[in-house]
Amino acid sequence: MVTIKDIAKAAGVSYSTVSKALRDSPLVKPPTKKRIVTIANDLGYQPNAAARSLVSKKSNTIGVVWPTVERTAHAALITNINEQLESLDYTTLLSINKIDAAINTFNRFQVDAILMFNEKGYIENHYPSNVPILSYGIAKDPLYPTVDVNRREAMKLAVKSLAEIGHKNIAFIGDITGKDQLQEEKVVGFKEGMKEYLQDVQKDSLIPAPGLEMYDGYLAMIKRLNEPNRPTAIISGSYDLTKGVIRALNERNLSIPNDISIISYDNIPQMNTFDRPISIVGVPNEIITKTITNALLDIIDKKEIPNEIILTPEIKMNESCISI
Amino acid sequence: MVTIKDIAKAAGVSYSTVSKALRDSPLVKPPTKKRIVTIANDLGYQPNAAARSLVSKKSNTIGVVWPTVERTAHAALITNINEQLESLDYTTLLSINKIDAAINTFNRFQVDAILMFNEKGYIENHYPSNVPILSYGIAKDPLYPTVDVNRREAMKLAVKSLAEIGHKNIAFIGDITGKDQLQEEKVVGFKEGMKEYLQDVQKDSLIPAPGLEMYDGYLAMIKRLNEPNRPTAIISGSYDLTKGVIRALNERNLSIPNDISIISYDNIPQMNTFDRPISIVGVPNEIITKTITNALLDIIDKKEIPNEIILTPEIKMNESCISI
DNA sequence: TAAAACAAAAACAACGTTGTTATTTTGAAA
DNA sequence: TTTCAAAATAACAACGTTGTTTTTGTTTTA
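Above: the input entities. Below: the structure tokens describing the complete assembly.
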């Protein structure tokens, strides 16, 4: 392992000069600097993060608590965040350990901040940590500053938009078991929207999907189509479900939007990969990631940030919805 | 941030005594030790990994280069490996950066070893690294020591087993595009098996799945069932595809094994979650993870390990296959 | 031409920990 | 009690780096 001392010896200068040269300090003469940098490259020098963070008390690293490997929902997010942080010279490290173990690890490594994704949507325990924690989930009296996309509002917005163009028989497809707080928010939002804009929720306007994968959407939709009182519009709880729904409608030769209008949650780039445009509701992916990145930088700088950062969803209506 | 010096002050001893006490050294008197440990807990002390690894030149950490896509297959693996390493007091950290950036990061952090998952199955570049690298993929003149599960052999084994009980019309379902080296190995193995045990491969014995998810298996199988010359046995390239195949067979009221026998690749625990037992071929998950863990420990200890560690698949035939 | 001012480089201290060496305390044996 | 070994603790050096201070060398100024 080559250190600045090795470089110093090779260059015939003191190691502190090497340190300065490599950090491009004005305190060392340009020719010397150049010579040192060349030698460093030749030797394949890699600065030792341990030594550096020991003295500077900064690691330029963000730890991400990634409790589940089932990362479908969050995969696009973390990829984006990783890229943004990288361009800001931060390194992202993930831990798939249990929350407390992951936080311990990150504390030992003195990461500059911890980003916590949580499966259930909320955090029930308070974990001791010396490094600041930002959470992504549901901002309801959270134990840590939390970035939240307002899923409830998104669903209300979807109902409102459909109601405004004359739809009365609207159905929501998604996880309605209430086990996942994130999903439950969508259900609640849908119900609230129905009450507010259409007076009531019929019991057949909730289409339960057994899971959140494409096939679950397909199955659930087929089942619903076999029942009477076909809805004129569908609000889908996720991108994957939407894929399944579209497949089911195609199979039954039902036209979007002539037979059924459709709005999908998940404002992600992949939404543009369908063979026809689909109306979208949700906070755009870039906005979520940008917000998280900025919040991380803020808590690193010890700036005060609001305990609840709630993002407002947008709706992009297009030809997948028709007036009736 | 509380350090051993803070503890020393609180306990009225020197900091070196604290260090020894916390590492449970016999050099400090039991009562003193106890007192120090209590104080450390009270203060919420977390050892500083930077300082520790700086002096010990060990970080007790394994860095994992995690591919951005195609994680389904590897998810079960990494969870297991993480658990095993944790029980050995190693921490696992994942990076989803580009390979070179990830390796750089891990070098700066002086992880003890790097485990490299690679999407395409093989690594084309040699990345400079001071810490030893183990790769998981295809062991064909690999640039790094590589753990490989012999997918080709697995498929041959499956064909052989089916041929032995009288099957002649056997089909393989999977990714046959050749883009993914890992998948291609299965195709090659299947073809070799067919040549060796059944003289020939018919052209309709390869069922192309557009992807590797459940729905892809479903779609591909349905399509194949609409064509003539129904196979008497199916070899499925992955767990997810198998799910789809079963669904398709159910839908068409075809019985396993009376109408079609089936063997699935992926020797993972989830295989037991089907409503009927399915024959499995592949290297058991625990064996793969155990092998990887041991190889990691070996390269950390600078033991010589073979450049190619190839694991031999097993087959578990059960009532999902019938003689004809 | 000596003093002052400045530039460049070297030396030093510190970060928190561990392992080694030195010192103090304890408890026997004399 | 004094003496000495063993046990317990304290002090020190080192790990690789950065920021600060000191030294050395080179100009400028009077």
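Note for the figure: The domain at 4-47 of chain A is CATH 1.10.260.40 (434 Repressor (Amino-terminal Domain)).
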